[in-house]
Amino acid sequence: xxxxxxxVAGRRAQMMEETRAKLIRAARTAFAExxxxxxxxxxxxxxxxxxxxxxxxxxxxxxxLLQAVIEQIDAEMAARLAVIGERxxxxxxxxxDEYRAYIEMALEPEIQRILLLDxxxxxxxxxxxxxxxxxxxxxxxRIRILVEDGxxxxxxxxxxxxxxxxxxxxxxxxxxxxxxxxxxxxxxLEAFRRLAEGLARA
Length: 202
Hints:
Elements: H1 2-34, H2 41-47, H3 52-59, H4 62-87, H5 91-104, H6 109-123, H7 130-148, H8 157-177, H9 181-198
């Protein structure tokens, strides 16, 4: 009897995960193509072959669905950035390469619209999002190791991490909102390079 109950519970959990994945996939497409405000919940649930009830059950509301989409995009970006950082010949250079790539991602239509334009408008200050807090903690850890290893001059790791994270985030937001994003990207990257490289100078 217990085995049967476990099997049913496992199947139910799998179905719930599949439902969530369908809704996130449909919402991600709708938010990228139409924007959050114009995306219809009826249309995206129909696209997923589900009902509004499934959306409310899994995410609470449209805002909760946007949060889930952003978390998925954030995770994908983090994985891409990790690969970029690992390619560098030096850990400090790898960290700066990741920040550069993050700012450049502001040109990608999906990231630009969902993460950098609609996300802050609906969910508030992105510097307070869980993903940003996790990034801050990881950057602080990496800078502390760089200082301990003598790779960069002594600096308060948390302070440096907050400045680098804040600068890169606001640079990306600036690029996304710009009327001339590619030109803005060039200016943002140059200014960020000068700011970040100053930390490596004694």
